[in-house]
Amino acid sequence: MIKRIACLAGLAVAMSAGAAEPMAAGLIVKYRDARGVRALALSAPPVGDEVRARAASVKSLARRLGSSIDYRGIIPSGALAFASRRPMKLSVALALSRNVSQDAAVEYAEPDLLLKPLSVSSHARFAGQWALHGSTMAGGALNVADAWRITRGGGVTVAVLDSGYRPHRDLARNVLPGHTFISDADNARNSVGREAGAVDPGTYRAEDECDADSPASDSNWHGTQVAGIIAANGAVAGVAPESRILPVRVLGRCGGKISDVVAALYWAAGLPVAGVPDNTSPARIVNLSLGAELPCMHSMRRAIADLFRRNVLVVAAAGNAARNARNSMPASCPGVLSVAASDRNGNIAYYSNYGAMVSMTAPGGDQSRGPDEGILVVSNDGRTVPGGDSYDHSQGTSMAAPHVAGVAALALAANPALTAADLRNLLIRTARPAPGACPGCSAGIVDAAAVVGEAARRRSGTVR
Asked: Which residues form the Peptidase S8/S53 domain (predicted)?
């Protein structure tokens, strides 16, 4: 009980440091004797009496506290997910979580937070992709050309949990059939919520459409940009241009629920999820360019640990709040490879989170120095609904993380025997010191040539 309350208190402290209060979509409740419940989550039988009684108890307590929530199902970790009729302020969700946690049978109860994308908004365009150049040309670059002499990532699948993708000409041939995991049909902009396919219909929204304080915004084509950084193979080159992208749509017009992201993590790794066809192309690497400025929560921690045990490496953006990443989720979750953003010269970007929870840095861009100082990405020219293929410059730790995910894909292609722990340690150990001002950058800048070179030598048995 003390540990549960301390975790919720940590969320409250982190919340007070931010300007706008985060929103929650509901509640996640895990009971201590959840083994049988977890089996229900994997096999999707009718809801049992025990689950029905527990769901009714939580709903009744919420009603007494002035909140209206509905039981929505069991996520793969065995926790029960509840959705509110309208997004709740985090303070309301925390109060409800604390009350539910008073039940001795409850292992934890926590808000089902809404996560957001972490962007600040022969390859004909390769000359403009400074992030992929040699470090002698740009101090913050990846040294990718030397890595490409060994491999271009063929045979490796990278899952991108994001807003989905547009079938851009530079990307489409490397994209596998994915899945939409957004459980709310309005947020997903479809009639059913979860469904086969992960094509992005646009994340545009009107003012106050998501909650009372949400601003209007255009579509950002965030998932397409992230996927392209990893695996584009046309006028723009991805870091691993022969790897495959498994798109998993978890972010809609109002963001994405933790419970949906957790379910998507299990599915991306090839684990069964109730009500969803099995994934026949499981990923060894998962990219999360999304998050919230709050400490790691139980549900996310458990999912990432389960994936790590299955040799699936999760790469996450460190966050764009220009503060310590210890209060950024999922970047602060144990086992994650957390990536801060650097500029062309190897300085930490002005917006990037930093600190001991950061594993390394990678190019994220700094457009305060000029538009072209961002990362050249594949995109779409539609402001709301999809338009035509386009290119753009973006910045953010959202752009930094997929550079590392792409390098990880190159390393796995060079040596498929690497475990998740091997891969994580190799990426960190071969990082080169940042040439610019980079306090709190941990290992330094990812170096594709060094990572892939050592991975290949390990495979051939020549590492000393």
From this structure: 153-432
Q: What is the pTM of this model?
A: 0.88
- Domain containing residue 282: CATH number: 3.40.50.200
Does any domain span residue 121?
no
Structure tokens at 61: 């307590």
Catalytic pick among 162, 260, 306, 366? 162
pLDDT in tens, 205-234: 998 888 877 889 999 999 999 999 999 999
Q: Are residues 158 and 198 in the same domain?
A: yes
Q: Name the domain boundary from 112, 134, 160.
A: 112
Q: Which of 338, 342, 398, 442 is catalytic?
A: 398
- Residues (pLDDT < 70) of the chain are 1-20, 34-47, 119-128, 130-131, 133-140, 436, 460-464
Catalytic residue among 222, 298, 393, 403: 222
103 is catalytic: no
Domain region containing 24:
2-112
